[in-house]
Amino acid sequence: MHTVPWLHVVSEQGTVPVDLLLPVTGRTFVARLDGRRMGDTDAVFQQFYDGMRLPDHFGWNWNALSDCLRDLNWLSADHVVLIVEAADEALPGDFSERQLLLETLLRAGRRWSYTQRPEAVERGRLVIVLSCDAASVPSLREQLRSC
């Protein structure tokens, strides 16, 4: 996986420059989710439902989560910053489900990545930050590469 400007994997003590997270103008919605509270898929969906204020028609499955994250029109914001704290602790012991989570985030990020317009480059609508223990950063990056 090559480096993409809308996805950041950082240690819990690490930082991400604000200019990479926030747009120059517009309304920004920030969602903070906790990987420690994502013990199974239902808990993952609950974290996203609560933290991102998913619409009531959310279908509580991976396809529905992917659809919501690739739409974002249900949020009254110009830009979204999604922070998953302790991302390395999400779905412990279930590698295939964790891969589905990461693939869903990658698809959404690609959907909202920077766009080239004739007048300038426009920052994407979604920025994702995956925070984890410093020792887990290489492993999480490798999991993302395998998606």
Specify the structural class: alpha/beta
The strands making up the biggest β-sheet line up spatially as 1-6-3-2
Mean pLDDT rating = 87
Query: How many angstroms separate the termini?
Result: 8 Å
Number of helices: 5
| Secondary structure: helix percent | 25-40%
Q: What gyration radius follows from the Cα positions, in whole Å?
A: 15 Å
Give a quick account of the main beta sheet: strands, pairing sense, barrel closure: 4 strands, parallel
Given the C-alpha coordinates, what overall shape results? globular
**Helix-strand sequence:** EHEHHEHEEEH
Strand content: 15-25%
Number of distinct beta strands: 6
Low-confidence spans: none
Walk me through the structure.
With 147 residues, the protein is of the alpha/beta class. Helix content is 35%, strand content 20%. It contains 5 helices and 6 strands, in the order E-H-E-H-H-E-H-E-E-E-H. The strands form 2 sheets. A 4-stranded parallel sheet has the order 1-6-3-2, with helices on one face. A two-stranded antiparallel sheet has the order 4-5. Strand 4 and strand 5 form a beta hairpin. Helix 3 packs parallel to helix 4. The longest helix has 17 residues. The radius of gyration is 15 Å and the shape is globular. The chain starts with 6 loop residues before the first strand and ends with a helix. The mean pLDDT is 87.
